[in-house]
Automatic annotation (TrEMBL):
Signal peptide from the UniProt entry: none
Protein name: Unannotated protein
Limits of the DinB-like domain: 93-229
InterPro entries with a match to the protein in the record: DinB-like, DinB/YfiT-like
Database matches in SUPFAM superfamilies: DinB/YfiT-like putative metalloenzymes, Pentapeptide repeat-like
Any Pfam family the entry gives: DinB_2
Source species of the chain: freshwater metagenome
Amino acid sequence: MPESFDDRDLSESSFWGVQLRHATFRDTDFSDSRFFHVFLKNVSIDGEINNLVINGVDVTDYVNQHDRWWPLRNNLAPDTKERIVESWTALGKEWSKLLGLVLTARPSVVNQSVNGEWTLNQTLRHLIFAMDKWFMLPVLGQHSFSAIGLPNSSSQARPWPGLDLNQNPDFEEVMATRSDQHKRFGEFISGMRMEELPETVAIEENGNVPALMCLHVVLEEEFEHLRYMIRDLAVE
């Protein structure tokens, strides 16, 4: 019987003779883990790779050199202002490239769903919501969410202040809101002093978290949804 392990700390656990066929691990930290006499067949790994040794061979350099997203993938949780700005700048260039390709080749694709996934317009609305949740409200002190934001499905029943799920904004309105948010985020990280970031801030639904984590979540959201869109729209 399949089980679900959510938000659990299983550090230092031992798995012996365990069947994990067809298992899915998401947002999981395997740092300093050891796998002995394991069977890895048709296994797909997507994540930050450092000091990965397989059968005595350190494959880190090989993997990273052939990773289209390296070194950006390994710089989504930066601890200095300079690296945060570097990642944000790189993400901005990648998004600009994608949007330029899409709008030049097939403008109608912004409202096209692939395999039931979010359209580009919906994805950008979700990123507006994420920016509100993790930056505009907790860090800048904005009082309510953008009406056109789109939470993930499991959170849509929550009463997010200012959010209106009945909204059906066109692409131009979505891009205008996104551009304003991006401008304000960029200005903030360019002028911030790391030592002046609040130790913790309150996040709707998630409680109190370190302020630096909020910036990391923004980077991660932008990165992951960029890759989803490139995959679904097949524009590269």
